[in-house]
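Listing S7. Sequence submitted for prediction.
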Amino acid sequence: MLPRMPAFRDHAVAIAKALTAGGISVVPETPQTPLFHVLLPFDAAAATRARDELIAERGVQVFSYAGLESVPGRCRFEITVGENAMEFAPEEVVELIDELTRRALR
């Protein structure tokens, strides 16, 4: 996997850029590694419920664990770009996060 790390990092940067262009907050804004966090405007329970619905209906797991954020009612999760994430175009990730958000906020 070591030879692929630069490609993973570049894809993480492209995904983060697409997410921020779509109004989704990420930290850091420009990843230095193939890992970054997505900040969400709802709590971890809502994020987890929406994640489970996406898995059941579409077979796609956006994240493993939603952590608490310092602001009540908000959470974050980690995106790590590896082999599986390379299969998704940045725009597809934006669509998945948008769908996750719609499900979590209903």
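Caption to Listing S7: primary sequence and predicted structure tokens for the chain studied. The two ends are 40 Å apart (CA to CA). Helices lie at 5-21, 44-58, 90-105.
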